[in-house]
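hey can u check if this looks right to u? its 222 residues, i copy pasted from the old doc so theres a chance i mangled smth
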Amino acid sequence: MGRAAAGRARRSRRGSATTASPGAGSRGGRGKKAGGSRTEPGEKEAAPGPDAFDLGAQSGRWAAFRERHRLSCEEAARLLLDAFEYRGLVKHTGGCHCGAIRFEVWASADLHVFNCNCSICTKKQNRHFIVPASRFKLLKGADNLTTYTFNTHRAQHTFCKTCGVQSFYTPRSNPDGYGIAPHCLDEGTVHSIVTEDINGKEWEKAMKEHKTIRDILFHSQN
């Protein structure tokens, strides 16, 4: 073989080794994910989830907490947020008589209940405590509710189609909240009840003069 031919052969062999190198690398560590696990051909790499957040020195406690209680990251985060946002409150559950309507509500164990003397509240003995909508969750029965309105139609008097019980409603004073019937709560979470009369016969005047209602209006709108 002449010198020129030998030089061409050596260059060709070097070129083959160079082009083979990436393929060899992919065979040796094909698409490795972060943390050393491998991605199989055609498998998409998972997007970083909440676990990817830097928890710093609390990462060990977070992992142990989830493992101990067998919680997903979302479930553990919800417990943490509930504990912070609803501190000082308890979770009450309740519903109508037949069980078609069920709900949960975060409120104090010591309830401040309003006893209104307007025409409809007198007829149905509508004693209730008020919570923002964010603290109320209807668990079941949305399709089994019916609503009665009158006058301004701002108050939504919802009740069960089957048994007729009103366990909660949307009050005129707090259209962005709920009025909950304390007598429709399950036993075991209420510590005490204080009842306060409201002059619903003179509703506009009562709303202007009543400090408790004004405070509830302020807190529910902020």
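The longest helix spans residues 3-28.
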